[in-house]
Amino acid sequence: MKRTLILPLALLIASCGDDPADRIARARAEIAAMELGAARVDLAAALADKGDDVEVLKLLAGVQLRLGDGDGAQASADRLEQLGLKGEELARLKAEAALLRGHADEALMLLGADNSPTAWRVRAAAKIALKDTQGGFEALRRGAAAGADQLLLRDYARFLIDAQDLDGAAAQVAALSRLQADNFDAMMLTADIAVRRGKLTEAHAMLERVAKRYPKVPDPWIARATVFDIEGKLDDAVAMTGRAAAIAPDDPRVTDLKVQFASMKGDWEQVRSVLSRQESTLDPVSANGLTYAEAMLRTGHPEQARAMFQRALTRSPNNPYSRLMLAQAQLATGDPGSAYATVRPLTDSVMAGPRELELAEKVARAIGSADADALRTRLTSARGSQTAELTQKGQAALASEDWSGAIAAYGQLAQLGKDAEVLKRLALALSHAGRADDAIAAADQARALRPDDPDTTYMAGYVRAAGGKDRATALSLLKQASDADPGNAMFKRALARFSTATGG
């Protein structure tokens, strides 16, 4: 609706002084530079001046689809149909427009038996929207086999990244790069894969290339802000966010970064000011939902914070941040007994750090628990202890895909006591190191400690599937995890990936 209201003004501004042919030529250059919003204005203005034209309308529809403007794309498709366009080409346009408008069933019906790569791409997205992740994965595979298509390869790579198949994703990105040098999606995906493999210097270098090649697109600056955040370089991350904001000040991703970094700087009033406008639509387990809840706690509204964190923990019971913050909110509302019951599971882990132990000791003393002295001893030991050092080493090793280092760190932690989180991470490292049997043993121990936890169930299935062991059990476990946490895209996509015999 907002697009429909503002477009006439944009067209009025764009219509001053330019010939339609000039606008069309400029729009083609803008499309090549990924300046899609500007291209949409130029193409619409050209059509307003010269009247409907099939090729220009096709260009406009393609831009509208890429921008996620389903209503605009549907309007363009209707105009194309009036000009005589028909058959599978028109059906594909209408199908993708229907999908963007939330009508996945209609999209599938419109595609019929179309076997083109574009049809398979839209079919895959429609099936995933209908929660048929396996069907979506099969559609992507069939689309890749049907022919080279840039957007399909992009979607296929994204799917495989979410399914934790970085090698498979890299292969699709390589195919995409062969179709077009310096392809925007290929470069951004290459950087994403580098980040997930802990190769942050490579990611920065690639994102610098993207920024030079596509100077009016905020995405590389947004991505660099995230990489700097991973590196703990907050000032650099804020600077990158500023570069993105200079290009696209109203981009929701820019707003999200501003909120995130304001929270890291402790500017909770700023966080509240920004997110209060979205309060009614915030997902309680989203990053912004959790940050807003903490802002409410830090600015003197503990009852509201308690309710928010309670909802978040109910939705995601294994989120340590939600558990820790709920305990803080409970303490702030004068309920130390509930706070201790909430925080206590965090202290059971051998990886429990000073924050968890300090809060636990505080509330234990408030309720007169005999555990308080023991927690104080653990807190003193945790500061600068070998456990903290091993935990940091293990996390760093996993992030950089140093599987041997991760195995060494988590293997030592596992000897300090039975801990499901330690064993789960150890299983992942063992699996990547090709030690399938050892990975299964560690994952099964983790699951025995937390049998109702979707994460441990997933890991027990994942290491079997990745190691080519007991496929039936692996798929059963992956399905259990996916059913227990239906909103987890990684679980669903891993299940789809391994349900296919060739694994993608």
Mean pLDDT: 92
**Helix fraction by DSSP (H/I, runs of at least 4):** over 70%
- Contiguous uncertain segments of 5+ residues: 1-15
- Tell me how many strands there are: 0
Structural category:
mainly alpha
Q: In what range is the share of β-strand residues? A: under 5%
Q: Indicate the overall shape.
A: globular
Number of helices: 30
Sheet of most strands:
none
User: Would you tell me which CATH topology of the domain at 387-499 applies?
Assistant: Serine Threonine Protein Phosphatase 5, Tetratricopeptide repeat
Order of helices and strands: HHHHHHHHHHHHHHHHHHHHHHHHHHHHHH
CATH superfamily of the domain at 387-499: Tetratricopeptide repeat domain
Named at the architecture level, the CATH assignment of the domain at 387-499 is Alpha Horseshoe
Q: Cα distance, first to last residue? A: 39 Å
Specify Rg, calculated over alpha carbons.
Answer: 26 Å
CATH class of the domain at 387-499: Mainly Alpha
Overview of the structural elements:
By secondary structure, this protein is mainly α. Among the domains are: about 1-105, Alpha Horseshoe (Serine Threonine Protein Phosphatase 5, Tetratricopeptide repeat), CATH 1.25.40; about 385-500, Serine Threonine Protein Phosphatase 5, Tetratricopeptide repeat, CATH 1.25.40.10. About 75% of the residues lie in helices and about 0% in strands. Helix 9 (about 135-145) packs across helix 30 and helix 25 packs antiparallel against helix 26. The relative contact order is 0.05. The model is unreliable at about 1-15 (pLDDT under 50).
